[in-house]
Amino acid sequence: MRWPGTMLAAIAVALLLTASGAVALAGAAEEPTRDEYVAQLEQICKPGSDATERAVRGVRSDVRHERLAVAGRKFAKAKRIFAGTVRSISVVPRPAADRSTLKRWFAALGQEQLYLGQMVKTLRADDVAGFQRVSARFIHEGNKANNAVVSFGFDYCSFKPTRFQ
Amino acid sequence: MRRAPARAAALGALLAAIACIAAAPVGAERTGGGGVVVSFDGSISPRSLPRHRPVPISVTLEGSVRAEGDAEPPRLRRLELAFGARGGIDVAGLPVCPRGRLRDATRRQALDRCGPALVGRGRLEAEVPLDPSRPLLASAGLLAFNGRAGGRPAVWVHAYSASPPVSFVLPFYLRQERRGAFGILLRAPVAAALGRWPRLRGFEIRLGRRYRAAGTSHSYLNAGCPLPPRFNRFTVPIARASYSFAPAPTLSTTVLRECRVSE
Description:
The structure holds 2 protein chains of 2 kinds. By secondary structure, chain A is an all-alpha fold. Chain A has helices spanning about 5-15, 35-45, 50-55, 60-65, 70-90, 100-125, 130-150. In chain A, helix 3 (about 50-55) packs antiparallel against helix 5 (about 70-90), helix 5 (about 70-90) runs antiparallel to helix 6 (about 100-125) and helix 6 (about 100-125) packs antiparallel against helix 7. Chain B is built from 3 helices and 17 strands. Chain B has helices at about 5-25, 105-115, 190-195, and strands at about 30-35, 35-45, 50, 55, 60-65, 75-85, 120-130, 135-150, 150-160, 165-175, 185-190, 200-205, 210-215, 215-220, 220-225, 235-245, 250-260. In chain B, the strands form 3 sheets. Chain B has a 13-stranded mixed β-sheet with strand order 1-2-5-12-7-8-9-10-11-6-16-17-3. Chain B has a two-stranded antiparallel ribbon with strand order 4-15. In chain B, a hairpin with a 7-residue loop joins strand 7 and strand 8 (about 135-150). The chains are: A mainly alpha, B mainly beta.
């Protein structure tokens, strides 16, 4: 078993849904196929992944040495990126056949966003017990989000802790 | 947390409720692509471990492979399972079972021949598509034995089903990792070991064994929960599975579970 920094890196992966206002959505009025939809979302999620990695760099060491306020600032930055990405991908037209599935996915992403905000609050308040609790729920919600769209084959838009191990 | 006493009871109840939800099993992690969906789940027993020293543990790993839709899933070529910490495996003084002794053995014969090297048990589901339109589903009992290949530890997983009659050995070659999140990597060339039939669809295996050698107690697997001082529970990666299909895709999934400090 690893110390919690590894999990923090895992959390960081979930934040890879990155903001990118550059993707043109105006031309997407027609209903896309699932493949087209996935490709479009991956394009939105991909570019900011480096920014998120930069945002949480060193957070493992911060928590290890109990610099929780510093870790909180890093997660706050990552949260802003995450929120921006969710906003961007939520306006992309969805394939009709997948609407109910995607509704569940977006609900889980919204919940993750809330937990992320709570994680920032607990870190800022030096509340270790709260951070432990909320981060567990954050991971749980990440798995739930992944399971909802497992057959879509998302890469950059999915929760993948392996990338940071 | 510092709270006014009047609110403590209500808050305590709320926190207990939240803790219960957070500790609830989250189910297997799944991932998909290329027309196939795989799942992986894992757990460690005991659930609470010391912060500063490793203690004997057992690890339960389970996974499944299914097609997306009605199509037959691609053939599983290789399975990799990673778990545990560096130095988390101890085979000192543990008897070694030569792989050849398990060939074509029934479960009873396998235990008779290699019982002292037993390190795990489980079950496996395999499809035997003799008639592709009506494939046979075989449920086989698994026995895992301590082995050795090329001077390194290995795990021979013996699968046996009486009906339909199936007996094969799935070799897991063990590598102790020096970097990365996990210390132990088990790699099995599934397609090469199973031949044309059968096709792996699901497995569950519990690894762990306590034994005595040279007058001292040993455990095949050992782990601790080395959290920083103020942390007493945290969600951490405990195992990873990579399923490689022929010709594609390769799907990896990591299981994150709570690590609790016992002392």
